[in-house]
Automatic annotation (TrEMBL):
Coiled-coil intervals: none
InterPro entries, per the entry: GATase_2_dom (IPR017932), GFAT (IPR005855), GFAT_N (IPR047084), GlmS/AgaS_SIS (IPR035466), GlmS/FrlB_SIS (IPR035490), Ntn_hydrolases_N (IPR029055), SIS_dom (IPR001347), SIS_dom_sf (IPR046348)
Species of provenance: Rhynchospora tenuis
Annotated ranges, domain SIS: 350-490, 521-664
Domain Glutamine amidotransferase type-2: start-end pairs: 2-278
Protein name in the entry: glutamine--fructose-6-phosphate transaminase (isomerizing)
Enzymatic class: transferase
Biological process annotations from GO: fructose 6-phosphate metabolic process; protein N-linked glycosylation; UDP-N-acetylglucosamine metabolic process
Catalytic activity: D-fructose 6-phosphate + L-glutamine = D-glucosamine 6-phosphate + L-glutamate
Nucleus found in the keyword field: no
Membrane-traversing stretches: none
Pathway where it operates: Nucleotide-sugar biosynthesis; UDP-N-acetyl-alpha-D-glucosamine biosynthesis; alpha-D-glucosamine 6-phosphate from D-fructose 6-phosphate: step 1/1
């Protein structure tokens, strides 16, 4: 949810204006994650030190900017303050370390005092940006208050810089000095919860320290000599231990560093990354050991282009990503379908274990849960293995039974969803084989599962997931094909699905032509307060996901319902005013959906029926209902086709109602807190 970004230039002159723009643009790249306030810290000038001789350090004091609202409010505040202090924006810095943050409120309302960086107090001796939640902050706060610290914010984060100052002062009062990494290690020793942190301090000028436990944090590296790519398999410390001009970045998200470098390393849990004199040191923190071990880490190459994080010719990221689906589905299948055979290298070594499972458990949240639900019927049909569904948070609340004979499949676009990761830890403790399905290479989910498949949907910026959803379904259908490939009884069905997969991008391209029709439908629904969607069988998930999309971005109450449950309550809502979408494309449930349509007509329901091309006269012989005709494909792939008109409907409803389609209120792209 929160976003972290930091930039350190070493041995290369960068003007203050340039540094500010790099930090601010980094925050803009993190906007899509969701936020309600933002902030940053850079160095000021030594002249300010001379004005206050009581400062406990003799280096340039940091300037901290914090603002509620959008990043452009922060931009205005920053440049206004710079003008007020008459700081030279063209002043070059050969070395400089800056930190920045977008905040999604958890402890304390959105306000400048609760924004990050949070400070140790007067003189800003320690500054921290934080993603996550500190669960024992109240105990730490009480302890620090007893030692004379006063708190200005309502956040859990503020205990961290104050604890750092407490540790620093205590060490300084003793014999000898204390290093920045020693301070941070002692702070980590006291913290409980999930976090990614970056520390900046005028006591340690031009240094940055990052550490993490549970939340994602990445290190980006750009050697300006242009030789980095030749040495990717060298240890990061060895690679950076020179005086060559370089730029280093910390970020919560690869999207924020791709325009600067494609060379990065994922920071692991309980690691401390210290940048000093242009060199990177990685230490492994251990509660039981006083001295940390040094860690070797090679750089990885980011397979992402800058164009993926730009809107191009589209007005919004959501519309761009909806229209990218023919390409994203092609990429998701590339190299995995050969001569009628599905090959998933990430599962190959564990395939025998999966086939012998007593059951498969799909675990996810929100859209990812719906994608798994859409894939469940074909997984059961092709594998003859029982498949159960679990919402990650509910599974944890119930402490659901998981056995070592189970295969647990965790589905998450970001790979960082807090509830899903906690459910993963629970499943690992119970001995289940854990499989990850994620869009994010190097994510926590990808690293902690035994095996898995990347969906390769490309960077998705819009908060409401679109192309990731359809790629998740395709990947799980391919998983079902691969797991069930040893069964002769399903050969014909498997061949039909594989043939359908090869034609799927073309069919998706065709259904996108309904864009104008969905805009017209949205216009007719613009003033409605509620919307119902009925689906069953393969398309129950489509009803849930379509309703979720409308809920998320158009801020309209909408409910996806199992059509078989219509007579058990929902039928009472039906009248001539409430719009109801019924998904009735051709599959095993088609005749039952025809019956549902007839019953709704009998009660004067206001129907919008989605059907297969050419079926309008079958589903609505009297022409009383609005009809959406979509291409027909093999049943397990039909949810991919059917969801696209619902995505377009949600998009147009949102735009017509005047809401922010890419950043809906109160929502975050990556839900990294419970």
């Amino acid at each position: 949810m929160c976003g972290i970004f930091a930039y350190l230039n070493y041995n290369v002159g960068r003007e203050r204006r340039y540094i500010l723009e790099v930090l601010l643009n980094g925050l803009r790249r993190l906007e899509y994650r969701g936020y309600d306030s933002s902030g940053m810290a850079i160095d000021s000038d030594m002249s300010l030190v001379m004005q206050d001789k009581n400062r406990p350090y003799d280096t340039a004091p940091p300037m901290v900017f914090r603002q509620e609202g959008k990043i452009e409010s922060l931009v205005t505040s920053v440049y206004s303050e710079v003008d007020k202090l008459d700081l030279d924006l063209e002043k070059p810095f050969l070395v400089h370390a800056g930190i920045a943050h977008t905040r999604w409120a958890t402890h304390g309302v959105p306000a400048p005092r609760n924004s990050h960086p949070q400070s140790s107090g007067e003189f800003d001796e320690f500054l921290v940006v934080h993603n996550g939640i500190i669960t024992n902050y109240e105990v730490l706060k009480q302890t620090l208050v007893r030692h004379g610290f006063t708190f200005e914010s309502d956040t859990d984060t503020e205990v961290i810089p104050k604890l750092a100052k407490f540790v620093f002062d205590k060490a300084r009062d003793g014999e000898g000095g204390v290093t920045f990494s020693q301070v941070v290690m002692e702070v980590m020793r006291q913290l409980e919860g999930a976090y990614a942190l970056i520390f900046k301090s005028p006591h340690y000028p031009n240094e940055l320290i990052a550490c993490k436990r549970g939340s994602t944090l990445l290190l980006g590296f750009n050697e300006l000599g242009g030789e980095t790519s030749r040495h990717l398999f060298h240890d990061v410390k060895a690679l950076t231990a020179n005086d060559k001009p370089k730029e280093l970045f910390f970020s919560s998200d690869l999207c924020a560093i791709v325009e600067h470098t494609k060379n990065y390393a994922a920071i692991e849990d309980d690691e401390i990354v210290h940048i000093k004199d242009g060199s990177v040191s990685i230490l492994k923190f251990d509660y039981e050991k006083e001295k940390p071990a040094s860690v070797q880490r090679a750089l990885s190459v980011l397979e992402m282009e800058v164009e993926q994080i730009k809107k191009g010719d589209f007005d919004h990221f959501m519309k761009k990503e909806i229209h990218e689906q023919p390409d994203s589905l092609t990429t998701s299948m590339r190299g995995r379908l050969k001569d009628g055979v599905v090959g998933l290298g990430g599962l190959k070594d564990h395939m025998r274990t999966i086939r012998r499972s007593r059951r498969i458990i799909f675990i996810g949240c929100g859209t990812s849960y719906h994608a798994a639900l859409a894939a469940r019927p074909i997984m059961e049909e092709l594998t003859d293995i029982p498949v159960t569904m679990e919402i990650a948070s509910d599974m944890l609340d119930r402490k659901a039974l998981i056995f070592k004979e189970d295969t647990a499949v965790f589905v998450s676009q970001s790979g960082e969803t807090a509830d899903t990761l906690l459910a993963l830890e629970y499943a690992l403790q119970n001995g289940a084989l854990c499989v990850g399905v994620t869009n994010t290479v190097g994510s926590t989910l990808a690293r902690k599962t035994h095996c898995g498949v990347h969906i390769n949907a490309g960077c998705e910026i819009g908060v409401a997931s679109t192309k990731a959803y359809t790629c998740q379904i395709v990947v799980m259908v391919m998983m079902a094909l691969a797991i069930g490939s040893d069964k002769m009884s399903t050969v014909t069905k498997r061949e039909a699905i594989i043939a359908g997969l090869t034609k799927l991008p073309e069919k998706v391209h065709d259904v996108l032509k309904l864009d104008g029709e969905m805009k017209a439908l949205a216009q007719s629904l613009i003033d409605e307060q509620s919307l119902l969607m009925f689906g069953r069988g393969n398309n129950y998930a489509t009803a849930l996901e379509g309703a979720l999309k409308v809920k998320e971005v158009a801020l309209m109450h909408s409910e996806g319902m199992l059509a078989g449950e219509m007579k058990h309550g929902p039928l009472a809502l039906v009248d001539e005013y409430l719009p109801i979408i019924v998904i009735a494309t051709r599959d095993d449930s088609f005749s039952k959906q025809q019956s549902v349509i007839q019953q709704l007509h009998a009660r004067k329901g206001r129907l919008i029926v989605m059907c297969s091309e050419g079926d309008a006269s079958f589903v609505c012989p009297d022409g009383r209902s609005r009809v959406i005709e979509v291409p027909q494909v093999v049943d397990c792939l039909q949810p991919i086709i059917n969801i696209i008109p619902m995505q377009l409907l949600a998009y147009h409803l949102t735009v017509l109602r005047g809401y922010n389609v890419d950043q809906p209120r109160n929502l975050a792209k990556s839900v990294t807190t419970q």
